[in-house]
Structures are given as C-alpha cells and as structure tokens.
Amino acid sequence: MDFLSILLDILLSAAFWTAVLRIATPYVLGTLGELVCERAGVLNLGIEGIMTLGAMAGWMAVYQGADLWTGVLVAAACGALLGLLHAALTVPLGLSQHVTGIGVTLLGTSLSYFVYRLVLPQASTPPTVEPFQPLALPGALAQTPLTYLAFLLVVAVAYVLYRTPVGLAVRMVGENPAAAEAQGLNVTAIRIGAVVAGSALMALAGAFLTLSAFNAFFFNMVNGRGWICIALVVFASWRPGKALLGALLFAVFDALQLRLQQASGGVLPYQLFLMMPYLLSILALVLVARRASYPRALMIPYRKGER
Amino acid sequence: MKGGPEVVLRLAGISKRFGPLLANDNISLTLRAGEVLALLGENGAGKTTLMNILFGHYVADEGSIEAFGRPLPPGSPRAALEAGIGMVHQHFTLADNLSVLDNIAVGTESLWRWRSDRGAARRRLLDLSQRFGLEVRPDALVGDLSVGERQRVEILKALYRDARILILDEPTAVLTPQESAGLFETLRRLTADGLAVVFISHKMNEVFAASDTVAVLRAGKLVATHATASTDRARLAELMVGRSVKPPAPAPLSPGEPVLELSGVTVASGHGRPLLDGVDLTVRRHQVVGIAGVSGNGQTALAELVSGLIRPDSGRLSLKGSVVEHGDPADMVRRGVARIPEDRHSAGLVGAMSVWENLIAERYHDSSFSRFGVLRRGAARTYARKVIEEFDVRCPGPDARTQLLSGGNMQKLILGRTLAHGPDLILASQPTRGLDIGAVSYVHSRLLDARAAGAGVLLISEDLDEILALADCVTVAYHGRLTPLLPHDRVSVSQLGLLMAGHWDILRDILPETVDAA
C-alpha cells in the first residue's frame, strides 16, 4: 500500500474521528481558559500546574467516593483557587505575570504529586476509578459528557465575551484598563474574576484526563498540554471559535501521527512522528499568528492613578 | 455673575502632594451651568492633577468637592460619572481594538445581564450624535479613526452617561486648526444645552476663542479668576508665568568658521523619491540656521543624518572641517554635536530611569562618571544636581524618575545634558513643540546663549514665528531639497509659506544674485 491510500484509510475511519474529538477536548478546555484570562489582560502560565491539580483533585474526589460530576466540580474549584492565587499576585500586586505563572505551575504540579503520595504512599500501579462512559451515539459522536460540555463551553464563552455586558467589560480591561476605569468599571475585580473563571476551565481540562480519557492519575500525565494551549490561544487570535478550530487541528495531527507510526511498521523512528503535531503547530502559528491582534494590555499590570 | 445660573460644581480648598511636590495648593473654584471655564497654566502648574482629583483618579489630601449641591465621594470615577461629571482625557482612554459603540457602552449596563441591549445603545448614541452634531460611525474600530474622530467618541462617551459637567484635558493639543474650530463649535452647542465645561489649556488663543471665564494656575496655586472678556493676552501670560515675557532678541553676531557642511548629500528612501536629494548646507559658528517646511519633506532624515543615525548614500558630511566617514551617534557626540530630538519621550529620555541616569546617558563612559567599568554614582549625582540647578529643572532631585517630570522640565533636562559641555553644533528638532510660554522662552534664550558662546545651531521647526525670531538664515525643505540660505530679514512669512508649498520660482525675487541656485 502506498502512503496516500494509508492516509485515506485512516481519514475515512470513524475510529480516527472519535479519537480526534477525544484528544481535542483537553485542548479546547485549556485554550478557552487561557483565552478568558488573556482577554482580560493576564497571561496565565500557571495553566500546566492548574491542569495537573485539576486532574489529581477530580480523580481523588471520585476515588474517595464522590460521584463523577462532584469530582468535576472539585477540580474546577481547585483550579479556581490556584487562579485566585495567580490573580492576587498579578493583578492587585502587579507582579510579573511570567514569573508568577511559572511559580503557579510549579506549585500546582508539586502540590498534586504531594497530595497524591500523601493519600497513596505505597501505590505502585495507580489505582483506578470508574470513568465517564461514552454516550450511546453512532460513530464519532460516541463521546463522554465532558467532551460535549467542552464544545458547549466554546459557544458559551463566545456568547459571554461578545454578547453580554460582563464580556465587554472583560475585553475592555484587556485592551485598555485606564479606559475601563474611566467608564466606572472596577479593573481589579474584573481581571481577578476572569483569571479565576479561566483557571476553573483549565482545571476541567485536567479532570477530563483522569475522569474521561483515562481512569487513573499518574505523574506527568498533563505532559505539556498546557503549553500547547498557550500557543493555541495565539493561533486563535484570542477568539473562541478559532480556538476550537486550532484544538481540532492539533488533535488531527496527533491522532494521525499515532496511526502513521503503527502503519509505518518501524521503518521510520517513532520520535519523528511524535514531533509532527508540534512542528505543524509551529508552522500554523507562524502562518496565522503574525497578523494576530493581541489584547493591547496583555501582560501589562494596571496601577490606578499611575502617571 | 451675581444671581446667574445655578452653581453646578464647587471645589473647596483642594490640596494634593506628590512626594515633595505640592501639585495643588488650596484651590477653590466654582462652575455654573452653561459656563465654559478655561483652566490656564503652564505645564506642571497642576491643572491636570486638579481635574484628575475632580474625576476621582486621584484623592485630594485636603479639601472637598460638591457637584449639584451634593458632596462627591473622593477617589471614584464611578461616583463622578454618577454625579454627572464626564472627562475627556488628553491621552484618550479608548480601546483601539473595540468598536465605537463598545467603547461608549461599556460599563453603562449592569454587568450581570444576560444580554447587552446593543439596539438601544445604538439608538441612543445616534440620537446624541445628531443632537450635538457629533458625527460618528458606531461600528468602526476606534483604531481606524482619526484623532479628531476619537475625540468626538470621547465627548459622546461622556454625553451618553448624561454628563452635565464636561472636563476636557488639553483638547486641542492633538487637533488641526480646523478640528479645533469644530470642537469649539461643539462646546457652544453643549453649553447652549445647559452643560458646564472646564477645559485645560496652555494656549492663549483658545482661551479667548472658547471660554467665558478663565482661571490661571501657577505652581499649584490659583493665582486669578477673570471673566475672559475683561482681560487680555499680555495680562494672562504674565499671570501664568509670573513675570512679563519678552520675545527673544538675538544680538547681531558675525558668523565664524563652518561647523557643519553638507555637500550634495542624498539619502535614498528605499522607494520612490529620495528622503534627501542633493542637499547643500553650511552652518557656521555664531549662527542659527532655521529649516522651515511642512513635516515630511526631509527634515527627519536631515536630523537623523546629523545625529549619526543614518549615513548619506552619496555626498559628503563634514564637521568642523573634517569629513565624517562612518558616523554613528556616539561619534557625533564626541565630535561636539548636541542633539535635541524631535520626540523627547521616545528618542530623548528614558522615562523609567532617573534624572541622573538620563543626564549621563551620552557620556557615562567618561572617566568622570565611571572608572574600571563601574559607575561613579556619587559624581554623577553631584553633576546632576549642578545641571538641575543651572538649567532650572523642576524635579524632586537627581533620583526622581524622569517620566514624572512635565514636558517643559523634560526639555530642560535634555538641554542640560546637551548644552552643559559647550557643543560646537546644536541640532534642535522642534525644540519647543508642546511647551508652554515660559518653557519656550527659556529654550530660546538657551539656544541664543549657545550661539553667542560660539556654537552653530541647526533649528528644525514647523513654527515659522519661532524660526523668524531666532534664525540668522532660513532655508525651506521641500521634497527632500533645500533652498539656498535666505537671510531672515529678507524673507517674509508669506514668502516662506509659498516656498514651503513648492513655489520656488519666487526665489528669484528674494535672492536675485543666486537665481541659478534653484
């Protein structure tokens, strides 16, 4: 079989598209979360740690006997708390968003491992829970509820940002906080709110990994997905619809490389295939993001009354 | 004004201190419905601070504000908006990436509604726009608008919120003369509707064009309040500056040897017409050469050339008789060129750094300011104190951050940096743009002092009055070319205007002996 027919076989199989939607889900959620933070003018590099904490906390709640949806809520609440920490340091105190974000990632990741080991000191094989089951729908539509939730949230975030007063306020503080303040808005409160909400979304991405895609928590399971989300936000020019598109595109590359790896039968080193989605993302970023109009006040702390 | 319209705003005993600087000192003002009050004062007199206190950006240390008979809570723009006060900031507070309608409507609805009522917002905006003759396109991105249009958006923003008192901070600083006239027309329509307007200005002609009452601030104090009709320019200028202002009077001096010579200098632009096209120019000691011209006719390239930022593509540049082969900015400084850049904020000073750091920026590597690669901070500070004293820079001290200084004081700082070392050539690009009367006359007298001390001055300015007052010789830039030098007493403003528009045929009348030069 030549390469093209292999590719065609893959692209026409329902299993491939099922995998694409599944792989895309954490990217969709994480990118939406980052997008909400950045629209308000706050870069949140804590995303990797917040996703890890969401993954651990959601799983741990279910492992301790809570039902799956309670686990999801616990994850979101933990993400919101870490987001509050990031917001407290970057918004009223105006600390460097880069440094704070990396600190939050380190804290979120280590805290997750620490709590996990505290509760399960001896586990050599990670214990499992009963995860979300795919809905009984045909073909690629057979997804777990969290995937459907992620796609609904794209619409919801887009609606809030573009059709409600609070969304306009969020965009305004990300573009020009001085203008927002002159219109009587509380810049600090709006930025903190956006970071907290965005971080809760990121934590959902983590919870999807342990409660839907897999059924256990293990170290390094987030594996750089947060950083990909940061790039996807730029790729999406800070728009929810394009964020969905970017996440799907990345998932297509990822699902494709797995299958091509198997089909190649060891002719090419598998690392080449692993690289593919990242290389293609960089390429897409270069092509799309050069003209991106970023929120003007992104990464600029706002201090009231400063001349 | 006894028994006139109701008093809508009353400031009582406002004082505000920034560190050691007393920005507002016990200021009391009243404003009546339908009145236009001009707040006149030099840069740094405290006008903007006062209005920022009124609008809640700052909190006053002392004093109280009453709007429409009710006390205004301090430090809250929201409270000011609710009390009917709107402010148009000098640096517009608009978000470029959002539409006009979004910029105006943000914050006017309760945040927690499920849906913005954009239809109603649009109707209200268009209604206001029509009522006050302020044309806008609601769906245009603010970033695509001209400066005049942005200002209309700012005014509409205030009106949209039912402002009855409108504060405008230096509203004409960014407008063309035609746009300014339009603005004053708008102000008349607003006051006819019963609004009260405060506008901040340091330009005398605006005060007379637009205001009913004028309040003069000087060094944080309210020095006088007059009905505009009952006063005159000279009196206001004196109140503003605190002394009478004399126009500069250059003493006649005979020019010395050349310090700057350009011969046949061409600078390509990369596309189309060259930036400079075969320019010949000589500047001598004891001489001010003025370059007049509409901006964009090669003045910037000429300034960059003399600063060492760009090099000629052909032709020759000599300083004090020696040809400069590979000039760079540091080399030009070493050769005795002092530079007053066109934009003091972006090219002149580093706002986030201190006064002393900025002062030694051109010569920090001198042995007087560093030894073995280590800065001599003590020596630098002592030097800074000397320059601050000598050039009358109003600032808390050598360690003050430069961005806290007013425009006039920033310019004095640049003058101090460049003139303190007895330069041979001074390149002054728009040296008084945006400065108030006091600072302008200070800059002029310093330039003339340097001329008397033996420097040559290359003065690039769009202000013809300035050029004719200072320059010994004038040349006009048009499409990258320069006219021959014209003695300042043989050319009139209207002739310069014609030359600036490209009518070089009149050179024949001004300079019969060099008829072939053009």
From TrEMBL, chain A:
Chief location: membrane
Membrane-spanning intervals of the chain: 6-29, 41-62, 68-89, 101-120, 140-162, 192-211, 272-289
InterPro entries for the chain: ABC_transp_permease
Membrane topology: Multi-pass membrane protein
Gene Ontology CC annotation, any one: plasma membrane
Protein's cellular compartments: Cell membrane
Pfam family, one: BPD_transp_2
Alphabetically ordered keywords of this record: Cell membrane, Membrane, Transmembrane, Transmembrane helix
GO molecular function terms attached to this record: transmembrane transporter activity
Residue ranges of coiled coil: none
CDD domains with a match to the protein in the record: TM_PBP1_transp_TpRbsC_like
Domain of life per record: Bacteria
PANTHER family: ABC TRANSPORTER PERMEASE PROTEIN, SUGAR ABC TRANSPORTER INTEGRAL MEMBRANE PROTEIN-RELATED
Name under which the protein is recorded: ABC transporter permease
Organism expressing this protein natively: Azospirillum lipoferum
UniProtKB/TrEMBL annotation, chain B:
Subcellular location: Cell membrane
Membrane topology of this protein: Peripheral membrane protein
Assigned GO CC terms: plasma membrane
Transport found in the keyword field: yes
Coiled-coil residues: none
Pfam families the record matches: ABC_tran (PF00005)
GO molecular function terms attached to this record: ATP binding; ATP hydrolysis activity
Xref: PROSITE patterns: ABC_TRANSPORTER_1, ABC_TRANSPORTER_2
Top-level division of the source organism's lineage: Bacteria
CDD domains the record matches: ABC_Carb_Monos_I (cd03216), ABC_Carb_Monos_II (cd03215)
Alphabetically ordered keywords of this record: ATP-binding, Cell membrane, Membrane, Nucleotide-binding, Repeat, Sugar transport, Translocase, Transport
Domain ABC transporter: 9-244, 260-504
Main localisation: membrane
Record protein name field: ABC transporter ATP-binding protein
Organism of this sequence: Azospirillum lipoferum
